[in-house]
Amino acid sequence: MRSVRMQGIERELKTRWMGHPLTVLDTVDSTNRYLKQRVSERRSMAGEAVWADAQTAGRGRLGRQWASPEGRNIYTSVLWTPPRERMSGVLSLVAGVGVVHAVRAATGLDARLKWPNDVVVAGRKFCGILVEAGVDPTPWAVVGIGINVIGKPDPQFPHATTLEEQTRAPVSREDLWLHLMASLEGIYDQWIRAGDSWAAEAWSQCTATLGQMVRVERPGAEPWIGRAERIDADGGLWVTASDRQEKVISGEVSLRLADGRYAP
Ligand code: BT5
Description:
Layout: H1 4-7, E1 22-28, H2 31-40, E2 49-55, E3 74-80, H3 90-107, E4 112-114, E5 118-121, E6 124-134, E7 140-147, H4 163-167, H5 173-194, H6 196-205, E8 213-217, E9 224-231, E10 237-241, E11 244-248, E12 254-257
Parallel strand pairs: 1-2
Antiparallel strand pairs: 2-3, 3-7, 4-5, 5-6, 6-7, 8-9, 8-12, 9-10, 10-11
Helix pairs in contact: 3-5, 3-6, 5-6
Biotinyl-5-AMP (BT5) binds next to helix 2, strand 3, strand 6 and strand 7.
């Protein structure tokens, strides 16, 4: 059930546009699906958001699922309408930086980004980001963010954690959501002014991946190990070994540390 505070949370927002207007739901199949439908019905506006207390069909990338139990987490989607020339993998970087800054501000935890789009603390994933975008009728991006906040993580995901598990103290979902909207607005506006390479640099400042030896796993190909060197503004990751250098693209590969761990 949505809390009373969650229900009226839009009144507490200090943002100019991010998170307005907000729809708060007890349950929905997927907040991304819900917002995309509004886009397709031409009923949406930039900054519009949805926050559900539970999802029955929460989605990850490539058809994977996002576990979305009720009463404990954040499942939220926000609509962005960037200029056409800014539509690329950079959107996911911008969203990731926004989440990291919000979680650090709200909890003090050392949240970091694991390429391409996971947010981790102490090597465990507490947040996933799913950006779905298109240009019909005009450029749009639905930025979906799932954050494990309260209680223990689902034991079926060995790399998962929750913010409370990490802080060992209560964390307010509502405070965190307010931080999230403020942080996303600040990072988005700065990205529009400063450019895509600024976003890649901001991402690089809060990553757990760069500098690490990583194992690049591609379906049907031999895995190989190299150093994660840098990220391009389109989100591609340069990995270098003694005999090869490649830009790996999210969706094509999965990345683990060379020693098999999920993240540092
Ligand atoms: C993601 O996908 O990490 C993106 C997840 C985005 C979820 C949000 S919630 C609001 C919005 N509405 C939606 O329908 N989706 C977005 P991916 O990188 O594919 O990771 C998915 C994998 O993470 C799964 O295959 C599991 O292994 C693991 N996983 C699933 N649920 C998890 C959870 N609650 N916490 C940690 N790991 C989880």
